[in-house]
Amino acid sequence: MIGPLRVERRLDTPKWLKVVVPLASLVLAAIIVGILLLATGHNPLSTYHQMYSAAITADGALSSTLVYATPLLFTGLCAAFAFRMRTWNIGGEGQLYMGAVGASATGLVLGDWPRPLVIIAMVIGGALAGMLWAEIPALLRAYLRTNEILTSLMLNYVAGFFMYYLIYDSDSYWRDLTTPGASVFPTGKTLGSHANWPGITIGSFTLPLGFVIGAALAVGLLLLIRSTRYGFEMRVMGDSPQAANYSGIRTKRKILSVMAISGGVAGVAGSSQIGDFGHVLDPRGLQQAQYGYTGIVVAALALYNPIAVVLVSLFIGGLTNAGFALEGPSFPTGLVGTIEGIILFTVLGGEILARYRISWQRRHVVAVGTGVAS
Amino acid sequence: MNSNIVLAVVVSAIAFGTPLVLAGLGELLAERSGVLNLGVEGMMLMGAVCAFYVSQELHWSSALVLFLAVVASMVAGAAMALIHAFLTITIRVNQIVSGLAITIFAGIIGLSSYLGEVWNIGGVAGLHQFNQVNLLGLKNLPILGPLIFNQDVFVYASWVLVVAVLYYLYRTRPGLYLRAVGENPAAADAMGINVTAYRYTHTLIGGALAGLGGAYFTLALAPIWTDGLTAGVGWIAIALVIFAFWRPDLLVLGAYLFGIFSALGPTLQTHHITALPSEFYSALPFLMTVIALAAASTSWANRRIGTPASLGIPYTREEA
To answer: Which residues of chain B does A155 touch, with a Cβ-Cβ cutoff of 8 Å?
Structure first.
């Protein structure tokens, strides 16, 4: 007895299901969130309208949606790329912190160098720092088969405390020790003007440079997964590590390199946080934003497809933006994560429904004899 | 370091270790049935916020209020686990992704924070809490007194629970069946064991215990609600199950060992010993978890390890 619900694989998924199921999942999520809002004394329709306005139609709303979408694009790619090989890098959060540490150091050191060079160096500095941080769980995974989910996650906390140490509890290179007042309220050193990444401004709308870099990375990663031998080997390893091993794929190296790329991408999220937006290493702000963890939501909703990550990062970026813009008694901060969670449940469930058929199990009366006798 | 401080560290290690024992036992039971639950952190937070809400809203005798708060935390944890169980057992969503989704849904920027704000219970001191019980009047015994005979009911309950789980797993028929389901669900099914029912039940018990572990924070450890107050304890509990080799007895030892790592920073700070930066002590439990996980995956440990063979794999009769 497997219980009354039966799940069996569909032989082929009808085209209409592929369109209808994700849409129905989103509608279902909206209904569930609506019920929750009603239960807590909020008006769902006006809340949704406020969110729509805060994320898209209000003055400057689209620009600030992109501010939140940019880091989510990177961390979404970080998770999507690693998850595609079933290497569960949950460490995007910490790799982003380390990327921010690396990029701000690079930007501070180079100071007055020509702007393009500073920008390139900051991207590389952040990527390298993220990569190195991701290699710790990668090495443990490759050589000791240590569960990378937990090690990469633990290192998020370690990276967070490391950032705090740099700014709040030491006389580190990153900390501002000269400005009066900085000894009372510790802050990081503000980077020079050459380390400010230029956005692309169209009218009142600004596209951060980071988003452009992220979109280019998404295309690059898609090509890497889809059309190279490297990507093929990744997919084989994801589907069957044993088959990969027998076919001579160097699995240890693959884990190290996939985690390096994944961590590097998250590191650039840190570079972009410094170059595009903050211009200073701000541990508290980075930690409150939770971009690394939200990147997992983005990757899962995009079904690990890098191009879909670009679109989903805009969607979740809009949601996050609305959350911060509307924050207050009528829109508690926790609502953003709650909505993300419910969308995840319905989309993950719906995705299975598109591939499997669910039916109530009826007790089949097995006709004894018919099979045997004939 | 004088012996007073050592004792102070060990005594508060028991307090810090108790939520790990509770949530760890829950995760152990779920994993023994073959279900990996990465939603522990979120379930703990839901337990913590619901327990605190009940303890603030009801105005009856302390014992009754605390009892109802504990029940609320277990219901909240089990409710989260029901979502996980339905998604992973019935419709076979990937267990890792579903667990992460639970933690995001219920976690620091999710439902637990939302409820805390809607209920308006953030930042106020709790009205009811579990206090130390002078067990058998022996609390003044040297060393053993403060360690064993002066704990709160939660701690004693967690000890009883450890013994109960040990007995259940190794000395009862359902415990044997549970281990069979985790090791080889097809064989268990052939024996007539209802695999789905076992997995649902133990995932829900796991969630209830995670919720209970969360309640320890808001009802005993520091009776106050702040967003994300478990601060990673749920994740350490999951790691604990791995390096305790899925054994309840080792899990308790591990939990108190990690209690020591967590207690070290705060205790040294109250004694004004600041040799290393406070961030180091805060990071210590997480660093030690990485090291312990690595040690548990060496070849020496691998020969002893008891990973349930079907962990993470959904079961369907036709595809087994």
So the answer is: 286, 290
Q: Where are the domains of chain A?
A: 1-42+330-374, 69-329
**Boundaries of every domain in chain B:** 3-302
Q: What is the mean pLDDT of residues B148-170?
A: 91
B245 Cβ under 8 Å from any chain A Cβ: no
Pick among 2.60.40, 1.25.40, 3.10.620, 1.10.3470: CATH of A69-329:
1.10.3470
Put simply, the answer to whether B318 touches A300 (Cβ < 8 Å) is no
Contacts of A16 (CB under 8 A, 6+ apart): none
> Does A374 score more than 60 pLDDT?
no
Distance CA B20, CA B26 (A): 10
Global ipTM: 0.91
**B-chain residue closest to A7, CA distance:** B91
The alpha-carbon gap from A85 to the nearest alpha carbon of chain B, in Å, equals 14
In the block, residue with structure tokens 């930066």: B277
The tens digit of pLDDT for each residue in B269-287 reads 878 777 788 889 999 999 9
CATH topology assigned to domain B3-302: ABC transporter involved in vitamin B12 uptake, BtuC (1.10.3470)
Residues of B in Cβ contact (< 8 Å) with A336: 109
For chain A, how big is the Rg over CA atoms in Å?
Answer: 23
